[in-house]
């Protein structure tokens, strides 16, 4: 603070003088440094052959300690870190920046667990300090490669392109319990797709034309890398296709359960019943029905409505085969319908029906091997008489 002080006497005439007073308020060291965690944990793999290795060389950074201090800078950093106990063999050290590193190769057969008691002191006079623990487990080096399950993704697009979004999740496993998996995508496809490096979530991040895309995805545990191909099918639906769609309602079935456990068998069973190719039977939309525990599946049968596959014959074949389908799948089918007007007290010639989709409400239903991205559909029937 800078103060200007004036002193005036009582004489006639009065005399005065002015002086400047400079007041400095200095910080005292009254706040201890604080660790960001009461206990830190780390898992590191041992060094091969008990000597410097390419994977975990001596001087390997184990973790970063984070410390804050509410005092001013001259009473805070640089901090002094001291390992009080647990480091009798001097296997670890901590530098002024709080980075814990190894000073020797690790051998889990000799020692597989360290509990370091660590103190940090600030730069004040006298210095203040805080304590924390670092729990370190030493594991065997990774010996297994990650495994990726093949994934096929089917996207329903109303129009000639898909607007983008989350389209599925890549599932990978590793028999090394402590391994952390990192996902990546072929750079050539990064202008169209991206993948979450930690979770494997696959995203289409721009408008994609109808067609088929082949993506090469890699997963690494830091030592081994595995690659796999992901196939993305973007299929166009039109109003005419919707007008010739067939809806089947299943009881007590979730979308992911249907995709993962029943879809392929259902496709094969319908193929045999209808006398069509398996790939001629495609999902247009999946959504919970009322009550939400039930499931509506909107299907398209290629060439349905044509002279080769008249819709009324397809419907008759499916309805007459419901008991067989239920026995094959082990689920209950509530209804199979194409025309809502059949349930209205209205002459068919006065009944107007329509199936529409809302492309702004897209749902992604993903399992380990299959993913479907479909719009919400609506079925309406109005009596015009």
TrEMBL record:
It is found in: Membrane. Its main location: membrane. It holds the Pfam family Cadherin. Keywords: Calcium, Membrane, Repeat, Transmembrane, Transmembrane helix. The keyword Repeat applies. One of its GO terms (molecular function) is calcium ion binding. InterPro entries: Cadherin-like_dom (IPR002126), Cadherin-like_sf (IPR015919), Cadherin_CS (IPR020894). The keyword Membrane applies. PANTHER family: FAT ATYPICAL CADHERIN-RELATED, PROTOCADHERIN FAT 4. This is FAT1 protein.
